[in-house]
């Protein structure tokens, strides 16, 4: 048995801001994928995955809610028969490893599931997001539900607010010099820990003002520029966003990356931002000359996401 593929996702803009109801833009990232599979003889990693699925099953069953309707017997039977999640998506890297798993479970076992072939109204998207939020809380303690939603639909998602989201189109990639890229910190980030730090910082009035007035403003501008294909304006706003993140999200950026982050701001060769919750995993980079940036950052592993 091999289930359908579910892809990684990249939250281009909106990390942390979406917790506070500002805009976000998430896109599928097809370089990494996961699928449910079953085997009779499992390897060590497959046994670990199978055990995790058992824990996930028990967690979902224990939720005192009528919002998660799954075919429980079939789900449990498949776990007993050796089901595991075969995934190339790196965990703790901010690209939606748990989201892909949640999407796969919903797709296979949800009763009266909303399918991607339907007319995806705002109400249906919200219903999906809420279900996914409950399911993914097993992994992070709190979840927006956006990672599984993006993985499930395999479409770009524009988040206008917590209750207003839509599937959207993004401009076609061009064969230009500019690019969005991932930079590997080669460290694993702990989402729950990072979110806890953020929520603690939100108790500070000054930090709240930075989020609502600076972070959200630049994020919204970046999203607008990206969707409209206004690359010149995008880089102006990405620079401002990168500066705000470095100045206010230092706990989410490992110490050894502060200097390389600042170097990009000073030179204008590239701009870095968080990819997901930070603390490790990937950083997102924006550059108007990817070949040049590859030379500058030759000591780091870079992955191309999108070409301008």
Describe the structure.
The chain has 308 residues and is of the alpha+beta class. It folds into two domains: 6-167, Ribosomal Protein S5, domain 2; 179-307, GHMP kinase, C-terminal domain (Alpha-Beta Plaits, 2-Layer Sandwich), CATH 3.30.70.890. The protein contains ten helices and nine strands. The protein has helices spanning 44-62, 72-80, 97-109, 122-140, 146-153, 191-201, 205-228, 231-248, 258-267, 290-296; strands at 6-13, 24-38, 83-87, 157-161, 164-167, 179-184, 271-274, 282-287, 302-307. The strands form two sheets. Strands 1, 2, 3, 4 and 5 form a five-stranded antiparallel β-sheet that branches. It starts with 5 loop residues before the first strand and ends with a strand. The relative contact order is 0.16.
List keywords for this structure.
single chain, 308 residues, alpha+beta, Ribosomal Protein S5, domain 2, Alpha-Beta Plaits, five-stranded antiparallel beta sheet, 19% strand, globular
Q: What are the SSEs and their pairings?
A:
Elements lengths: L5 E8 L10 E15 L5 H19 L9 H9 L2 E5 L9 H13 L12 H19 L5 H8 L3 E5 L2 E4 L11 E6 L6 H11 L3 H24 L2 H18 L9 H10 L3 E4 L7 E6 L2 H7 L5 E6 L1
Antiparallel strand pairs: 1-2, 2-3, 2-4, 4-5, 6-8, 6-9, 7-8
Helix pairs in contact: 1-2, 3-4, 3-5, 4-5, 7-8, 8-9
What is the helix/strand order? EEHHEHHHEEEHHHHEEHE
Q: Tell me which oligomeric state these chains represent.
A: single chain
Briefly note the CATH topology name of the largest domain. Answer: Ribosomal Protein S5, domain 2
Domain module tally = 2
Helical segment tally?
10
**Mean pLDDT reading:** 90
Helix/strand/pairing category: alpha+beta
* Helix share, percent: 40-55%
Amount of beta strand: 15-25%
Task: Return the CATH class of the largest domain.
Answer: Alpha Beta
Rg from alpha-carbon coordinates: 19 Å
Q: How many DSSP E strands? A: 9
Could you say what the CATH architecture of the largest domain is? Answer: 2-Layer Sandwich
Outline type:
globular
């Amino acid at each position: 048995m091999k289930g359908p593929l579910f892809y990684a996702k990249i939250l281009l803009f909106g990390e942390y801001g979406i917790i506070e109801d500002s805009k976000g833009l998430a896109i599928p990232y097809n370089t990494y994928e996961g699928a449910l599979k079953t085997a009779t003889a499992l390897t060590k990693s497959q046994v670990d995955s199978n055990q995790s699925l058992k824990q996930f099953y028990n967690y979902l069953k224990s939720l005192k809610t009528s919002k998660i309707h799954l075919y429980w017997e079939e789900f449990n039977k498949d776990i007993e028969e050796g089901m595991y999640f075969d995934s190339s998506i790196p965990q703790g890297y901010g690209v939606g490893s748990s989201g892909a798993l949640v999407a796969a479970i919903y797709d296979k076992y949800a009763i009266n599931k909303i399918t991607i072939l339907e007319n995806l109204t705002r109400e249906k998207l919200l219903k999906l997001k809420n279900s996914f939020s409950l399911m993914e809380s097993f992994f992070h303690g709190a979840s927006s539900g956006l990672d599984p939603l993006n993985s499930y639909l395999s479409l770009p998602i524009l988040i206008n607010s917590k209750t207003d989201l839509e599937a959207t189109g993004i401009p076609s990639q061009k064969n230009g010099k500019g690019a969005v890229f991932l930079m590997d910190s080669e460290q694993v980030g702990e989402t729950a820990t990072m979110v806890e730090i953020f929520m603690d910082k939100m108790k500070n009035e000054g930090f709240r003002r930075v989020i609502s007035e600076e972070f959200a403003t630049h994020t919204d501008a970046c999203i607008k520029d990206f969707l409209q294909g206004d690359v010149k304006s995008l880089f102006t706003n990405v620079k401002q966003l990168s500066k705000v993140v470095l100045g206010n999200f230092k706990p989410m950026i490992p110490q050894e990356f502060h200097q390389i982050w600042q170097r990009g701001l000073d030179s204008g060769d590239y701009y870095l931002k968080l990819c997901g919750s930070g603390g490790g995993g990937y950083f997102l980079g924006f550059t108007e000359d990817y070949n040049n940036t590859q030379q500058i950052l030759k000591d780091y592993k870079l992955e191309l996401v999108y070409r301008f």
